[in-house]
Amino acid sequence: MIFLLLFTVLILYILYSWITLKPQNFPPGPPTVPILGSIPFLPKKNGHFDMENWRDKYGGAVGLALGSFLSVVVCEPKLVREVLKRDEFQARPYNRQLQSRSFGRKIGIMFADGPDWQEQRRFSLRHLKEFGFGKTSMESSILDEAADLMDEIRDRRVQVSSLFNISSVNVLWKVMAGVRFKRTDPLLQRLIKILTDLFRAGNGLSGNLSALFPILRYVLPFTEQDIVTRELSKFILESIREHDKTLDEANPRDFIDVYLTEMRKHKGSVSSYDEETLIVICMDLFSAGAESVGNTLGFIMLYMVLYPKVQQKVHEAIDSCIGRNRKPSLLDRPSLPYIEAVIQEVIRCNTIAPTTVPHSTFVDTELNGYFVPKDTFVLLSLWSISQDKEHWGDPENFRPSRFIDESGKLKKDEFFIPFGYGKRLCPGEALARNFIFLMFTTLMQDFSVELPPGHSSPSTVCLPGFTTAPQPFEVIFKSR
Fold first, then answer.
1. Which positions bind heme (predicted)?
2. Are 156 and 477 in contact (CB under 8 A)?
């Protein structure tokens, strides 16, 4: 009798929770079921494709219940820009998934918020610029990576998947740790594998079960993401400990040295500067740049073999502006609008980050006439912006000329925001743009990119994950 009563109470509680889960005037969205919420109706892979269907069915703001958590997916371009501007949407959610990567604390520069986040972001950006982020001083490092890569691939049949990740990791790691690996270094290969596994381990929409149902942490203490994140954390910690042994505070070699010096200044006092925060900042920077930049170059090579006329125009632009007797420079960027247009069109067609890093609401607020409670998980669809028919006209077509104005100059577009917008703008945007431009122009100055004989055209459908990646394909980098 007691068991039956308890069972009845449990069922009634579940039904009550289900009925009251979505508050009144919450944005419309997929159906919900008890306990799971909207999870059974979420896409399993490449959820950014389904967001377009949701927008047609529910509107620009889609309400979901992810287990016991409320979520809003914003998939209308003007609403995405509005959310990125408004302060009340600039918090970060904090769940089991994020706790596991940040030592149970809300630290770092990507998944944190509040005064400590502001202090750490200011410090990090200031000193990263000193060591090359966005500066022409990084030019020689990027060109060194390009030269090494060219020696490896010249007139050879090459698998493009992850081809550029080694170069992008090397440039990032030199800024952070002052080290440049040889391309065959086992330690570098280990780091590349960790990063690849991390970004292929899930998707931004559904996350993992233990993040949505905290009680499962006692049943499923370690997810695939947890394991990969711990590997990356261990790799970074080893470098920090080595730096600490040889630190000369008067002559910092890299970002880690500068941060360790700041930690020593605050030793013995309450401070946001500590070893765990440094580890998480390094992970954040890798997350923001390493794999995404490499995959962007992979997609660029994909479109070069699919669109040989575009590749021919790229060669003509480089030959006309730079010639063959010197290497490209960042100073050439304003004179090569077609190169920039090709890069931007590839990024638009295959948005590397289909959704932003999740946002959260500081307070109860409204969006598009709907009520959005405090602590709502907010996901912004950058894919929806890049594929918006109303704005782009023919988003399904690869057409670099859409970024060129009538005078032949590069045209700015307010809806081209692959690095985000506002206070949450990606800290590595300048470095990423410089790296992609220099690597692309340097390779195309010397090579034509062709499919091996007998190979069919590769697919433009991306691999799923937190970031997208091209499917495996091979090319020949043929000397011009």
1. 426
2. yes
CA 145 → CA 134, 137, 175, 328, distances in Å?
Answer: 17, 14, 14, 13
Q: Which amino acid is at 368?
A: N
Q: Which domains does the chain have, with CATH numbers?
A: 96-363+396-479 (1.10.630.10)
CB 362, CB 374: distance < 8 Å: yes
Distance (Å, rounded) from C-alpha 337 to C-alpha 343? Answer: 10
With H, G, I as helix, E, B as strand and everything else as coil, classify residue 108: coil
Contact yes or no for 442/150 (Cβ under 8 A): yes
If phi > 0 it is left, if psi is from -120 to 50 it is alpha, else beta; for residue 420 that is left
Residue 269 one-letter amino acid:
S
Burial of 11: CB neighbours in 10 Å, binned 0-12, 13-18, 19+ = exposed
Instruction: Give 112-148 pLDDT, tens digit per residue.
Output: 999 999 999 999 989 988 887 656 668 999 999 999 9
Contact (Cβ atoms closer than 8 angstroms) between residue 195 and residue 169: yes
Tell me the pLDDT tens digit for each residue of 393-427.
999 999 999 999 999 999 999 999 998 888 888 88
Q: What span, in angstroms and rounded, lies between the C-alpha atoms of 436 and 109?
A: 23
Between CA 70 and CA 215 the distance in angstroms is 17
Angstrom distance (rounded) from CA 106 to CA 129: 24
Q: What is the pLDDT of residue 398?
A: 98
Query: What's the rounded Cα separation, in Å, for the pair 200 and 210?
Result: 18
Q: Distance from CA of residue 236 to its chain's centroid?
A: 19
User: Cβ contacts of residue 269 below 8 Å, gap of 6+?
Assistant: none
Q: Using an 8 Å Cβ cutoff, are 81 and 421 in contact?
A: yes
d(CA 215, CA 35): 12
| Parallel/antiparallel/unpaired status of strands 157-159 and 359-360 | unpaired
DSSP summary character for residue 87? G
Distance CA 320, CA 324 (A): 9
**Which pLDDT belongs to residue 134?**
58
Do residues 121 and 427 make contact, with C-beta atoms less than 8 angstroms apart? Answer: yes
Q: What is the pTM of this model?
A: 0.88
73: CB partners within 8 A, 6+ apart: 29, 51, 54, 61, 62, 64, 205, 379, 380, 381
DSSP string, 360-411: E-SS-EEETTEEE-TT-EEEEBHHHHHT-HHHHS-TTS--GGGGB-TTSSBP
Rg of the chain over CA atoms, in angstroms?
A: 24
Flag whether 426 is marked binding: yes
Burial (CB count within 10 angstroms: exposed 0-12, middle 13-18, buried 19+), residue 22: buried
How many other CB atoms sit within 10 Å of the CB of residue 121?
Answer: 19
Angle between helical axes of 429-446 and 165-177 (0-180°, round to 10): 140
